[in-house]
């Protein structure tokens, strides 16, 4: 007997509690603190919806949900200009470097 099931459970943002509350752990973009719902879909149609247990972080750039405790702190303006910071690890880098000495990414 062959049974085909097209569906699954996914998370969807219900309400944004605080915009820009932290940074994404994957892409380092600003992430929002949100309340979310878990949604059961059957053949791509929402069938059942129930609330998540606690607020979570959500990245609008890479669409990732992750726990609030793992969030990186939001970017703050410091005395080091943005051009002298690595885009990936957010550490200060001297202007003559072509690669970040901490994470190795190209500047």
Automatic annotation (TrEMBL):
Transmembrane stretches, start-end: none
Pfam families: Zn_ribbon_15
Residues covered by the Zinc-ribbon domain: 23-104
Superkingdom per UniProt: Eukaryota
Alphabetical list of PANTHER family matching this protein: DOUBLE ZINC RIBBON PROTEIN MJ0416, OS05G0435400 PROTEIN
UniProt name for this protein: Zinc-ribbon 15 domain-containing protein
């Amino acid at each position: 007997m062959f049974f085909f099931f097209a569906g699954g459970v996914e998370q969807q943002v219900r309400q944004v509690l605080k915009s820009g509350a932290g940074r994404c752990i994957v892409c380092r973009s600003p992430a929002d603190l949100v309340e979310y719902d878990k949604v059961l879909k059957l053949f791509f149609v929402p069938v059942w919806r129930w609330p998540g247990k606690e607020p979570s972080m959500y990245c609008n750039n890479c669409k990732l949900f992750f726990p609030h405790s793992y969030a990186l702190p939001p970017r703050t303006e410091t005395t080091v200009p943005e051009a002298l910071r690595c885009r990936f690890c957010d550490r200060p880098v001297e202007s003559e470097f072509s690669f970040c000495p901490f994470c190795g990414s190209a500047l």
